[in-house]
């Protein structure tokens, strides 16, 4: 979410950045730190300061997100920002998929059904009146603030499992499936705790990570022990800001771009915590400090140079900049097509503060791809550039990759941490009947490529005619599990494993290219990308001539 991302309208939750304000927390929001969609709903003028903990062996950082036109996202106001209160992004993300919806199983009039998820820590109550969700940990159980209509966007479809007491809930065919077991009743204490002390919140925070965080071995093998060592600092009288600071300092040690903590309190300044930028985006922050400018201004200038370099140097003034200025395409050299996708969504301009559904995003994107692929029909090679892709919807990633698939091929698999006896969900790349290109492809990535951009990388690497060039991707594949804490704060964490068609997991290290290409050289951040792509296109022309 990168840009956008939670229950994705295709097999997983969309990847969007978390909205600035939410009236409730989406159960599983695939947010990509760097990519954001327009905010939804009414805004408030609550001031927000971005929390920055002291540097503690930071491995991965969070970058300020800017849109392709160079306007840094609102999350960067003072980054991925002063923020308004967290907007609920669930509505609209899952409501529309091109596939017909499966009819939900009728609810018995005999009484409520209560279901416990495998993984995710959810207790879902199903009644004739609607749905209700609780979050369960070894420490405490507490209700989610989401309404029944919001929950139906996530769990509105049901299918029977291997036995009568097992059921799969999901948003739409092709989306992430969540397996639940029926239990006799909701635990008695799930609604019996109206006031929360700092030690109790600490217990919920720790238990949530202990039970659901998927990458301790890669990112913080001793993280739980180090957090536990902070317990003596937590007292019943501890104020909110001190507790938030303690949580934020602990999260800093993970260095995970999909970990985020937001506190929303109308009585005081609103706090947020996100990872600092790394790699290329960290170099931009260094440039801002060196020149005395704001990171926002430096990134805007950099993105402007990136755009102009594509249009003038790569496409020589003959290209197309379309789909809400998220897609570039044209010919980079004689016989060499060029397609650059900056986000896996955002192709539809927001209206009245509402984000487009995945169906609307695809409806806007598919004609653009039709034009590009029809134009590439006589090309000898195509460069597909996602070197500055900030994430979005996985369904969009698969739709673009399908334009290069000649037959069905396994693209990637995913499963939730702690989901016992649930087989990985496999996603197949299926050829499209629309215009396509099945010739040689050069896929370009960088350390900016993240989230749904990385899922696209997995899908493209499954195709035999694709050569992956550039630098490693950022290494943040997992959907974001959104957990509202019982005091109104919101926690995001990585709880899912993504593996490529060979079963390899690139979380925390990024997908490595088969051929190195310095896309954003430190010595020439503004123009290095265009020159690198220009050289790559010319080399393909020479190779074809030989």
Automatic annotation (TrEMBL):
It comes from the Bacteria. Pfam families: Peptidase_S41 (PF03572). GO terms for molecular function: serine-type peptidase activity. GO terms for biological process: proteolysis. Residues 336-514 form the Tail specific protease domain. Residues 1-48 are annotated as: Disordered. PANTHER family: INTERPHOTORECEPTOR RETINOID-BINDING PROTEIN, RETINOL-BINDING PROTEIN 3. This is Peptidase.
